[in-house]
Amino acid sequence: MSALMLILLLGGGAVLAVGAYWFFRPRDPEREVYYHFLCPSCSRKLRYRARKAGKPGQCPRCRTRLTFPATPIELRKEETNSGRYNQSR
Ligand SMILES: [Zn+2]
């Protein structure tokens, strides 16, 4: 009985510790860099993590096996106000 209680207490403590670790863990959004590239089969714009570059993957749409390029292709930026920003002031 007491051993079971001890195990339950230890388990609860471990869960609390893990929860606190996850809660207080500093999140670094800059670490998660995403690249874009076009699927060679269905030409769908795919997004993959920078750490996946050069590694094999699969297109979620056409299920084509592919390798994420180490160097992302240059896609046209949707935001065109960067030039305007340089002009003003
Ligand atoms: Zn595809």
Largest sheet: number of strands, sense, barrel closure:
2 strands, antiparallel
Spans of at least 5 consecutive residues with low confidence: none
The succession of helices and strands, N to C, reads HEEEEH
Across the major sheet, the strand order is 1-2
Shape: elongated
**Residue-averaged pLDDT:** 80
Bound molecules: zinc ion
**Classification by helices and strands:** alpha+beta
CA-to-CA gap between the ends?
A: 74 Å
Number of strands: 4
Radius of gyration: 23 Å
Strand content: 15-25%
What proportion of the residues is helical, as a percent range?
25-40%
H/I helix tally: 2
Description:
This protein has 89 residues and is an alpha+beta fold. It has a domain of 43 residues. It is built from two helices and four strands. It has a two-stranded antiparallel ribbon. It has a two-stranded antiparallel sheet with strand order 3-4. β1 and β2 form a beta hairpin. The radius of gyration is 23 Å and the shape is elongated. The model has no long low-confidence stretch (mean pLDDT 80). The structure holds zinc ion.
List the helices and strands and how they pair.
Blueprint: H1 2-24, E1 34-38, E2 45-49, E3 56-58, E4 65-67, H2 82-87
Antiparallel strand pairs: 1-2, 3-4
Bound molecules: zinc ion.
The site of zinc ion has 8 residues, from loops.
Task: Write a short abstract of this structure.
With 89 residues, this protein is an alpha+beta fold. The chain contains 2 helices and 4 strands. The model has no long low-confidence stretch (mean pLDDT 80).
